Amino acid sequence: MSNHAIEEDSQIKEYKKFIGSFVQKNQLILGDNLVGVYLHGSAVMGCFHPQKSDLDFIIVIQHDLNAAVKRQYMDMVVAQNSHDAIIAPAKGIELSIVKESVCRPFVYPTPFVLHFSAAHLNWYQTNPSDYIEKMNGTDKDLAAHFTILCHRGMTLWGKEIPEVFAEVDATYYFDSIWNDIENAKEDYVGAAFIEKLENCNFRTLNQYLNYCIKYKTYNVCESCSTARQDTDCVTLITVHSAKGLEWDTVLLSLKSFSIDSEASRLFYVGLTRAKERLLLTYTKKQQFLADLLL
C-alpha cells in the first residue's frame, strides 16, 4: 500500500487507518482474485472536503464474483461505511469492482461487477438479495473515473496503474461527461450556470471542454472547487452527479428517463436524494416510473 503517498497528501492522511483497513479486507475477501485497489476522485485531485466528499475506489479483479462473495463483500463495505470502528469521511465510500479484462484494452461503456455508494445503502440493507442480483451492468461514468485514475490516481495495493489501465480515448471520456450533462440546457438555469462557469474563468461549457482537450489536465474539481461551496441556494444537478448527496427537498425530472435497467438504477438514486419531500415531473412516457411509487 502506498503509505508514503497518503502521508504526503494532507487532505487524506487522516484516513490512512481507514484506507488501510479497507485494503486489507479486500485482500481477505477477494484473495488471489484481487488485482489491485486504486484511489481516484477528489481525494487525488486536491479538492477533497471531509464533510462533503466520499473516498472513491476502483477495485480490479481477474474473474467474476458469485453471489456469496458479493454478499460477504457488501457486508464488509456497509460495516466499513458505518464509521463505527474507524474514522471515515462523512460521506463514506464509493466504489466499483471491475474485471481486469475491461481495463486493458478499455471497454466502453464499461461493464462493472458490483457498485456501491451511500445512495445505495438503504437498497442493500432492505433487500440485499435484490441488490446483489441487480447491481451490475455497464457504467459510462467509469470512462471519466479511469481517466482521472490514469492521470492522478493512487495505487493502494496490487499492480501499478499503467500495468492495469489503458489510456481512455478522449472520445469516450467526453462522451461520459456529456452523458452526465446532456440535459444541461434544461437542468441548469442559464444565469446560475453561466455564473458558475465565470467563477471558473470559463464563459461557456465548450470553452471548458476545449481547455480539457488542449491541456489534458481533466481538473474538473480543481478548477471549480470554489464555485461548489454555495450553501443557501438551489442546487441544479444531474442524477449521476448527485450520487452520495442529499437534500431536504428534491424536484426530480423524469423527462429523459427511458425503460432500461440503467434508468431504473438512476431513478432509485434520484428518489433517495430526498430527506423529507420529493416532487416529480414527468410525461406520459414516464408514467410507469411514477406509478411505482403508488
Please describe the structure with a list of short key phrases separated by commas or semicolons:
15 helices; disordered N terminus; two-stranded antiparallel sheet; 294 residues; five-stranded mixed sheet
Write the layout of secondary structure elements.
Elements: H1 3-8, H2 16-30, E1 34-40, H3 42-45, E2 55-61, H4 67-81, E3 93-99, E4 110-112, E5 114-116, H5 121-126, H6 128-134, E6 137-139, H7 141-152, E7 154-158, H8 161-164, H9 170-181, H10 184-187, H11 190-199, H12 205-215, H13 220-224, E8 247-253, H14 261-271, E9 274-281, H15 287-291
Parallel strand pairs: 2-3, 8-9
Antiparallel strand pairs: 1-2, 1-7, 3-5, 4-6
Helix pairs in contact: 2-4, 7-9
Q: What does this protein structure show overall?
A:
The chain is of the alpha/beta class and 294 residues long. It is 43% helix and 17% strand. The chain has 15 helices and 9 strands. The strands form 3 sheets. Strands 5-3-2-1-7 form a 5-stranded mixed β-sheet, with helices on both faces. A two-stranded antiparallel ribbon has the order 4-6. Helix 2 (16-30) packs antiparallel against helix 4 (67-81) and helix 7 crosses helix 9 (170-181). The longest helix has 15 residues, at 16-30. It starts with a helix and ends with a helix. 32% of the residues are buried. Mean pLDDT is 77; it is low at 1-8, 184-194 and 211-230.
